[in-house]
Design goal:
70% of the residues lie in helices and 0% in strands. It is mostly helical. It has a domain of 232 residues: MetI-like (MetI-like fold). This is Microcin C ABC transporter permease YejB.
Length: 358
């Protein structure tokens, strides 16, 4: 097992390198980079409004630049912008410099927020952790027992009507369901039971200790219900199908013939084998819950988390944040995938990764 873990750790290096290289190459062809973003702000709002306190960078506005919309700006000013953002260097040099810094976990500073990327991520992390942890807990706590029940009662009325609900939940985009919840319960056209933004109230610090968790859950109810809909549907169907496949196998028939109860057969034999596929889906669910799955939800409910930070950074072309979050979550995904494989061997000791080629 030690050799397998070492090989997987070594394999992470070219994997991360490839992910970052492809993303970096795509970004080079994307229009509207940081320099053009600043030029757009300058031409629309005025140089003094955009870069107040920028010193000699605000001088002259009489030349023409190479960027779209840079007419009327001093070429020397454009060159200073390029140097400020690091675009005065060749792409390969910028890429390898970035990767060298990332290997030392030095993610630099944001282009537009005047603070370090690490501080920004640390500031937004609690919101995403709140969403991710609760979604993982609720989705697995509800979906696995429900999936087992549906597998045991396959074809029954309970299975049919719950499948209908699950299919609807899977088909409806989570952001549309979130908008519906806002309209119905957050001061839209009907009821005003839940707050529309934030994970706590503005007066959270002045609340009594017993009121703080209630206030927190009051704010988190609608976002969690929205995210839980799609996660709940996927995990339930996956659990059901996995258990049905295992129940039909010969060893289950043999166990029943020996006189074991249905509970002993189901949880003593079937459960361990059926849960392997659920464990296999955990890394993707983990990363999705902490970042990609909550992106639109954070925007809809005005939650200032990592998903919203990443989206704003992509729109704004704040590349240090974009590449830093990509690097961090890619690394997290690879590490969690390795942990998932190790859990495989704990759940089913028959699996031996040392005998396989990575």
């Amino acid at each position: 097992m030690g050799a397998y873990i070492l090989r997987r750790l070594l394999l992470m290096i070219p994997t991360i390198f490839g992910i970052m290289a492809i993303s970096f190459a795509i970004v080079q062809f994307a229009p509207g980079g940081p320099v053009e973003q600043v030029i757009s702000d300058l031409t629309n709002q005025g140089a003094g409004d955009r870069l107040s306190g920028g010193g000699d960078m605000l001088q002259n506005a009489s030349g023409e630049g190479a960027y779209r919309g840079s007419q009327g700006l001093d070429p020397e000013f454009i060159a200073k912008l390029e140097k400020q953002f690091g675009f005065d260097k060749p792409p390969l040099e910028r890429f390898f410099t970035m990767m060298w810094d990332y290997m030392r976990f030095d993610f630099g500073e944001s282009f537009f927020r005047n603070t370090s990327v690490v501080d920004l991520i640390a500031e937004k992390m609690p919101v995403s952790i709140s969403l991710g942890v609760w979604i993982l807990i609720f989705s697995y706590a509800i979906s696995i027992p429900l999936g087992i029940k549906k597998a045991v009662s396959d074809g029954s009325a309970f299975d049919v009507w719950t499948s209908g609900i699950i299919i609807i939940g899977y088909a409806v985009p989570s952001f549309l369901f979130g908008i519906l919840l806002i309209v119905l319960f957050a001061g839209g056209s009907f009821l005003d039971w839940f707050p529309l933004r934030g994970i706590v109230s503005d007066n959270f610090d002045s609340l009594a200790w017993w009121q703080k968790p209630l206030d927190y859950m009051w704010h988190m109810t609608l976002p969690l219900i929205t995210l839980l809909l799609s996660a709940f549907a996927t995990t339930t169907l996956l659990t059901k199908n996995s258990f049905i496949d295992e129940i039909k196998k010969q060893y289950v028939t043999t166990a029943r013939a020996k006189g074991l109860t249905e509970g002993q057969v189901l949880y003593g034999h079937v459960f361990r084998n059926a849960m392997l596929i659920i464990i296999a889906g955990f890394p993707g669910a983990f990363i999705s819950a902490f970042f990609t799955g909550s992106l639109l939800i954070e925007y809809i409910f005005s939650l200032d988390g990592l998903g919203r930070l990443g989206y704003d950074s992509i729109v704004r072309r704040d590349y240090p944040i974009v590449f830093a979050t990509l690097f961090i979550f890619s690394l997290m995904g690879l590490v969690v995938s390795l942990i998932s494989d190790l859990i495989y061997t704990w759940v089913d000791p028959r699996i031996d990764f040392d005998r396989r080629d990575v």
